[in-house]
Amino acid sequence: MRGASSSACDFRRAERHLRVAARMALRPAPLWLPVMVAVSLLRGSCLGASSHSLKYFFTSISEPSQGQPHFVLVGYVDDQLFSYYDSNSRREQPRVSWMEKLGKEDPQFWERETQISRGSEEAFRRDLETLRNRYNQSEGLHTLQKMYGCELRRDGSKGGFRQFGYDGRTYITFDKETFTWVAPDPQAQITQRKWDGLPGFNQRKKLYVEEYCIEWLKKYLSYGNETLLRTEPPVVTMSSRTEVEDGMETHVCRVHGFYPREIDASWTRDGEVWLQDTFRGFLAPNADGTYHYWISIRVDPKERGRYRCRVEHDGLQDPLDLELNEPTDSKSNLGLIIIGCVVAALVIVGVIAGFLVFFKKRQDGYKAATTSDKGSSSSDQGNNQAV
């Protein structure tokens, strides 16, 4: 269970992916966190070619709207939501079929996780009140967020992070290299001095993210290996059009249906990577758990033959190098792709705007956060130390 030693419970999360998740998780809108993590989104010798991560996200709201939970806790292995708890159900539950195997092998597992999560819920309620008083704020909408996890990178190295956010801003971050907490303002420095002064507290936090969390990650990967350790090669298609204004050609290289999410797609000119006049789309998930991505480039038609779309992925034995096609219909596939991307972007913006309108009225500004706290199976020792 979260926070127990490896001997008692048999346990101990690629770099860019983890840091992006960390920045997203502490943005201003409180319930934006699970949404963005779900939408978002690596290589070790015994775990397949890619890196892998285990992450936990906590969000507590002082005045949620009617029917919404005031506390939510979610756990992710890579990009897959595998556990969920909220203050309405007050039960931690699996969100993927492969986690049910663990419950069958250890019938008390989910009960232990539930008790730990309930403790976190109560601790967050108290901490929200403490921070409101510490910042001399009136009652109303306030948020406290926490995030932590670990990663096993493709080169076999390990990493981890732990941080808190309050009202959409970084509150405190754990620096596991110096075994200390980093606080941006005087109110947070009260917590910093308190936690840095607790004997063994910071050492346990470092040990958790670098050892215990990694062992749990490996365990979860073994349960979900058919899903998490699979490889699906990308399907690559090309579209192009001639620009009416200047006669230049725009080519789009679309890569879809691949897993894991790490992929290297680039334009090359004369065999060398070419960044000029290129544009990259968003790496995004498909409904079946695979991913899609695209890159475009503007070229002079006279030099079309010098360019290639190069794609490298774990599902491919060798890199793909696709030639650019001569445009046949300036209003055909490329236009549809661009329209589709615009529509998808508008949908995402609409969802985000809805959350922001509802939750951001009493919040101003945002400062990116870099680390946080929770464990797994989900918790770690001293997880509920008051701020």
Structure, described:
This protein is an alpha+beta fold and 387 residues long. The chain is 32% helix and 27% strand. It is built from nine helices and 17 strands. The chain has helices at 6-9, 15-25, 32-40, 99-105, 109-134, 186-196, 201-223, 225-228, 333-359; strands at 52-61, 71-77, 80-86, 93-94, 143-152, 158-166, 169-175, 180-182, 235-242, 249-258, 264-269, 272-273, 278-280, 284-285, 291-299, 307-312, 320-323. An eight-stranded antiparallel β-sheet has the order 4-3-2-1-5-6-7-8, sandwiched between helices. Strands 9, 10, 13, 14 and 15 form a five-stranded antiparallel β-sheet that branches. β7 and β8 form a beta hairpin. The longest helix has 27 residues, at 333-359. The two termini are 24 Å apart. Residues 1-49, 330-337 and 351-376 have low confidence and may be disordered.
Major β-sheet annotation = 8 strands, antiparallel
Beginning-to-end CA distance, first to last residue: 24 Å
Q: Main sheet: which strands, in order across?
A: 4-3-2-1-5-6-7-8
Number of separate helices: 9
Radius of gyration: 23 Å
The level of helicity is: 25-40%
Question: Which class do the helix and strand fractions yield?
Answer: alpha+beta
What general form does the structure show? elongated
